């Protein structure tokens, strides 16, 4: 199988701190690749480098055959991105939000309507195209962001925590749409998530990152076999010494304690 994304010795330093350390991996065209790791492991820094938002300190990235560091425009035309934080305009309709994106990506005017219709149909929002985004639910907004990322016909879609903050039923619906995109359009998907059971259910290949390094990669079966565990969650725990959910919880606790301290000092 052909690799649509190839990463070699990718490193990012922030002053003396190395957030991503010489990571290398390949993503096959048409596959779903999940990038997993605890908070602060380096997932967002990596996805920002892959999508040309952040300049690597060293290393190579090839996307759809283009050097992402030297042929940025061509590399950018090859992918769509959905970041964690919504960047939709709430005061516009769903349709208007996508038109805006299509113009930025120079989608030919005569093709625009047809492409927007197809993108909205695949996420089940065509009938709601005239609604204002401010009236959309969280799940609908995420689906709209996915549709928007498709309108310039990318070969690969980057999704940073696509289901974070959504209820379980809505998360399932988002995964259904992602799987449909992958199966029906042969779209390559690169995603980060901390929902282990969801990664286990959808991903063809997995890479686990901790402290900026890839500590394990392969199919779910390969990882379970090598770590002698029964689930990805168990494998993750064994490899990192941490439960990904505990990690998030402890993050919340730290924030709460800090918030209390701040309140106390004010008095
Ligand atoms: N601009 C920056 N300057 C300094 N340090 C940074 C910067 N961006 C990220 N870091 C640090 O790099 C490390 C990796 O951060 P990153 O956001 O990539 O982690 P992550 O795996 O995406 O975590 P999360 O799930 O919390 O988003 C963290 O220790 C973070 O504090």
Q: How would you describe this structure to a colleague?
A:
By secondary structure, the protein is an alpha/beta fold. It has two domains: 3-78 and 155-266, 3-Layer(aba) Sandwich (Rossmann fold); 90-153, no CATH class. It contains ten helices and ten strands. The chain has helices spanning 43-50, 72-77, 94-104, 109-122, 138-150, 168-185, 196-202, 220-227, 232-240, 244-266; strands spanning 3-14, 17-28, 32-36, 58-63, 66-67, 79-82, 156-160, 188-192, 205-210, 213-218. The longest helix is centred in the C-terminal third of the chain and has 23 residues, at 244-266. It is globular and about 50 Å long. The termini are far apart. The chain binds adenosine-5'-triphosphate (ATP). The site of adenosine-5'-triphosphate has 11 residues, from strand 2 and helix 1. Adenosine-5'-triphosphate (ATP) binds at residues 14, 17, 19, 37, 39-45.
């Amino acid at each position: 199988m052909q690799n649509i994304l190839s990463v070699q010795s990718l490193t990012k330093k922030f002053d003396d701190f190395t957030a991503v350390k010489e990571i290398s991996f390949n993503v096959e065209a048409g596959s779903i690749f999940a990038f997993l790791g605890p908070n602060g492991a380096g997932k967002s820094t990596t996805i920002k480098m892959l999508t040309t938002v952040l300049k690597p300190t060293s290393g190579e990235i090839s996307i759809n055959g283009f050097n992402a560091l030297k042929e940025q425009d061509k590399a950018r035309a090859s992918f769509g991105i959905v970041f964690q934080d919504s960047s939709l305009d709430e005061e516009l309709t769903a349709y208007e939000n996508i038109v805006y994106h299509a113009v930025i990506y120079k989608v030919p005017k005569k093709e625009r309507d047809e492409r927007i219709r197809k993108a909205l149909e695949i996420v089940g929002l065509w009938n709601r195209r005239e609604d204002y985004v401010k009236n959309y639910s969280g799940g609908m907004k995420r689906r709209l962001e996915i549709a928007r990322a498709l309108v310039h016909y990318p070969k690969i879609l980057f999704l940073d925590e696509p289901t974070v903050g959504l209820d379980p039923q809505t998360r399932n619906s988002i995964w259904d749409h992602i799987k449909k995109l992958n199966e029906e359009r042969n779209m390559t998907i690169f995603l980060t998530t901390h929902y282990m059971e969801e990664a286990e259910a959808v991903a063809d290949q997995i890479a686990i990152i901790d402290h900026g390094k890839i500590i394990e990669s392969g199919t779910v079966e390969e990882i379970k076999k090598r770590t002698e565990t029964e689930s990805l969650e168990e494998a993750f725990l064994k490899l990192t010494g941490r439960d990904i959910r505990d990690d998030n919880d402890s993050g919340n606790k730290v924030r709460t304690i800090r918030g209390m301290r701040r309140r106390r000092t004010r008095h």
